[in-house]
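Meet the record:
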Amino acid sequence: MRMPSLNQISRGSRPGSSLTTVRDGLKLKKVFFLLAETFQALGDPSRVQIVWALSKGELCVGDIAELLEMSQPAVSHHLRTLRNLRLVKVRRDGKTSFYSLDDEHIEHLLKEGIDHVEDLL
C-alpha cells in the first residue's frame, strides 16, 4: 500500500490533530530530502535564470548561453544538474539539444518564489 503524500496528509488534518498530522508527514523523509535538493539547485542564481528563461519556452544551450552571457560549458553543467533533479527535460533534434521545464510544477514553484521576493521589495 502506498503512503499518502504530504499534501494529502495536510488536507486531511482536523482541528486538534495537528501533532499527529505533523508526525505522519515527517515520516516521508525522502520527500523532504528531494525537496531540499530541489531548493538547493534553485539556490544558484544562474540556475534560477535558466529555469526562468525556460519558463518562456524551449531553448537550446547556445541560446541560453547567449541570453545569460555565460559559456556553453557552464550552461551545460547547470542544465545537467537541473536535468538530474528532473526540473528540466531535453529533446534532441539532430545534433542540437533543446531544453524545457519538466512539468508545470516547476513553473508554479518559480512563480511563487518570484511573487514572494517581489512582495519583499
In short: The radius of gyration is 18 Å. The mean pLDDT is 89. Residues 1 and 23 are 19 Å apart (CA to CA).
